[in-house]
Design brief:
With about 120 residues, this protein is an alpha+beta fold. A four-stranded mixed sheet has the order 2-1-3-4. Strand 1, helix 1 and strand 2 form a beta-alpha-beta unit. The longest helix is centred in the C-terminal third of the chain and has 14 residues. The chain is globular, with a radius of gyration of 14 Å. The termini are far apart.
Length: about 120
């Protein structure tokens, strides 16, 4: 495993993003675990539940944690088809634009999917 991706198992956008990512992960470099399972298993490191529901969290093989835009950027490097475009996200100006765009999409995810999450977490 290269990365462990934590996602909200009750979030429509998160589940659809996971499914699409799994199709791109030809090399099997990302393991997915719902934050609900992660919390139930009492895994370390522990995160605040609200933070896990706000944005994607990725943990690499060395235990480094990436959140939000940085997690998405890290994941895109793992997939052969998105590797080259993902390199552009490492340019100095990319984070300045990428962070607010990621946050806006995360805040408005229920609008994108046309349905709300099962437990209301998309309203966070």
């Amino acid at each position: 495993m290269e990365l462990l991706a934590l996602y909200d198992g009750n979030c429509v956008l998160c589940n659809k993003s996971k499914a699409k990512s799994e199709k791109l992960d030809w090399l099997g470099r990302v393991q997915w675990l719902s934050l609900q399972e992660y919390e139930k298993e009492g895994r370390k490191p522990a995160f605040r539940t609200i933070d896990l529901r706000r944005e994607l969290h990725v943990i690499d093989g060395n235990g480094r944690i990436y959140k939000g835009f940085f997690a998405a950027r890290k994941m895109l490097l793992q997939f052969p088809v998105t590797f080259m475009p993902a390199l552009l996200l490492y340019l100095p100006f990319a984070a300045k634009a990428g962070i607010p765009i990621y946050n806006w999409i995360a805040r408005n995810r229920y609008k994108w999917m046309g349905e709300r999450c099962a437990d209301g977490s998309c309203s966070i």
